[in-house]
TrEMBL record:
InterPro entries: HTH_LacI, LacI/GalR-like_sensor, Lambda_DNA-bd_dom_sf, Peripla_BP_I. One of its GO terms (molecular function) is transcription cis-regulatory region binding. This is LacI family DNA-binding transcriptional regulator. The keyword DNA-binding applies. It comes from the Bacteria. SMART domains: HTH_LACI (SM00354). It comes from Flexivirga aerilata.
Amino acid sequence: MPARDQRTTITQVANAAGVSIQTVSNVIRGRGRVGEATRERVAKVISELNYVPHPGASSMRSNRTGQLAHPMPPQSFEPTNNINVEFIRGLVAAAATHDYHVVLTRSDGDPEEIAELCRSGRIDGFVFTGMQPDDPRMETAHRLGMPFACFGRTAPDLPQTWVDIHNADGTDEATTLLIETGHRTIAFLGHESPYFWDAERRDGYLQAMARAGLKSRVALCGSTDKDIEAAARKLLGRGRPSAIVCSSDRLAVALYAEAGRRGIEVGKDLALTGFDDWIVGRNLSPALTTVSTDLHDIAGRVVDRFLTELDGPTGAPGEFVPVELLRRGSA
């Protein structure tokens, strides 16, 4: 039993009972679908560990608004950002199962925008996406005592209230597939950006190539259609590789178009892999081999994590969700 001067955390209760943090939270709040045997086991552990929810939780609960803010960075509004659209769909659906409404706001990353929302009394917390190095949004929310959860990792000195994917694992597996099917000249086409996931996807390709003792070839481009088309023309010009690993399906789609203009047959003359599982990629001929992320599942996990933080900081670590390589005709 913890010493009397040490507060038992909800994470310790969950570990001792062999359940998730969300299940413990549901038992405490008397909501959610929890089996009777599980409910009794959790209640017994709560009693044995003398667990007491965060001191302010009860008073905060009575003042909750049922509103969850999702500040959207400018790139989220781009028509090509299919990932954000799918994540929002999952976020709204997951929040609704807990009687929460999602408030979408545009944010340029100004910490004062976040501070104003914290002070407004109109929201119970945040869901953040599009994290950048030294992102001030989470630091501001944390400093003002506002709960948050993220799709993407937070800085080490902030609460690790995030859910994310292993980006490098996805491109490593895609590159390994190409190597195992006989390709030796494999290039990588990625986005030139400050976001950690773009760097990780490049790293996954590089580690697979190094492991196989093959020479790597990395091409990076900007985010405009013009930039992407120029990169595709260059890669498919003189000395083109036999296969290309792309850090997004959008890049792979551009390579399909350029290959068609040059009479190069994808799946036969050129192997391609993507990342994200756009619906467009599924409908290409041949269909695009890609790394898939279950955005609805991730959104649900992010909402669950937010809800557990409402009862006070849990101190629990972030959570990685596995990716899946979908093998189709392009590779």
